[in-house]
């Protein structure tokens, strides 16, 4: 009986050994399979990441295109102001190729520009930044100061006369000045302070030899004078007259 028991134990141990060997073999095969599959799994994951990155880049590109198209569809005001007129209708489709007119008319009432023309004889005296005094027909008692901000480099010929366009920028804090008002401007091309002035009507003779009639006691005398600046109404006297002397104004 003891021998049969020992023989049974041996056979059981051998069977268990075979099971262990079989399980070990299966485990080795699975391990080997996982070892071979791992590089393929990593490669597949890398491809999926590349595809995701490509899709993201494409989405960013499409977003940029949409944002660009949206920016083109927005009409942004170049400055703060008031919409004075609208030239398009709601729902109207516009194209730069087919529509060249402005969409809106925007004005800034706090800053006004006056456009005018200067004769070719005087244009050389006008410089950027020079001060100007503006008089308006609608507001004759109001004087508005401005500055020359533009001088056209090319002249315009009209009836054999050449003129140059200029722009004067002036402030409008109380917004009394309105678009389209008629005005005239005096541009200060030079300035003299504390000088002796006489009316241009009193000046006689020629540009080379100007003279005036000066009242002395009960008579008058002809006197040569040297002139300086003139604003078209008054002229500066550099020599030939003294302050307080009276001159004759010819009757016209």
From TrEMBL:
Name listed for the protein in its UniProt record: RND efflux pump membrane fusion protein barrel-sandwich domain-containing protein
SUPFAM superfamilies tied to this protein: HlyD-like secretion proteins
Keywords for this protein: Coiled coil
One Gene Ontology cellular component: cell envelope
Molecular function via GO: transmembrane transporter activity
Gene3D superfamilies, per the entry: 2.40.30.170, 2.40.420.20
Any coiled-coil regions, as ranges: 10-69
Main location: other
InterPro entries xref list: Beta-barrel_YknX, MdtA-like_C, RND_pump_MFP, UPF0194_transport
UniProt domain YknX-like beta-barrel: residue ranges: 114-187
Cellular localisation: Cell envelope
Domain Multidrug resistance protein MdtA-like C-terminal permuted SH3: start-end pairs: 194-248
